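sry for the spam today, last one i promise. struct tokens for design, 171 residues
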């Protein structure tokens, strides 16, 4: 499938990045026994060029590794991630997933809408504590103080049970 890329790479020394190169190629091959199929290879090489002014590529020293299995695993992981994101986006309520260090890994758009307009920077990677402080600033807490709300939410975060309903100041 990538035969044109190989021809270009080997016929034009200017397309070779420096003295060595790495490229991933999808090739059609025929395996032992006559069965055909596609294989993805990672090719790392150093071109052998003529010493004349034209510096034509006359050969190649290199290593090619079959990375077909790795590429299939990556494809499946990407598909699973896309499905997970789609499922989480379908929730009407805010949803956030934190890692073992309490950093935000994933959230849906409903959760992002609950973040204050003063929030700066990306949400993913932010600490639970930072997000909690920002959340407390924009909620209608009634008689509860912001500090009491933060403490209550920390407790819920440590041992979730049931649900927490909140109301933003803008309704």
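last one done:
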């Amino acid at each position: 499938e990538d035969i044109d890329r190989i021809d270009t790479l080997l016929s034009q020394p200017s397309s070779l990045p420096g003295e060595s190169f790495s490229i991933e190629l999808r090739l059609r091959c025929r395996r032992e026994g006559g069965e055909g199929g596609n294989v993805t290879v990672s090719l790392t090489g150093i071109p052998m060029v003529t010493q004349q002014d034209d510096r034509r590529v006359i050969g190649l020293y290199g290593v090619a590794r079959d990375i077909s299995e790795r590429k299939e695993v990556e494809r499946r992981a990407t598909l699973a991630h896309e499905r997970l994101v789609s499922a989480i986006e379908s929730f009407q309520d805010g949803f956030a997933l934190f890692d073992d260090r309490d950093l935000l890994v994933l959230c849906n758009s409903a959760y992002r809408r609950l973040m204050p307009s003063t929030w700066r920077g990306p949400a993913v990677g932010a600490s639970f504590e930072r997000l909690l402080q920002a959340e407390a600033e924009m909620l209608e807490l009634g008689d509860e103080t912001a500090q009491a709300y933060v403490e209550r939410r920390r407790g819920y975060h440590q041992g979730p049970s049931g649900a927490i309903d909140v109301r933003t100041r803008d309704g």
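The chain has a mean pLDDT of 83. ok im logging off now
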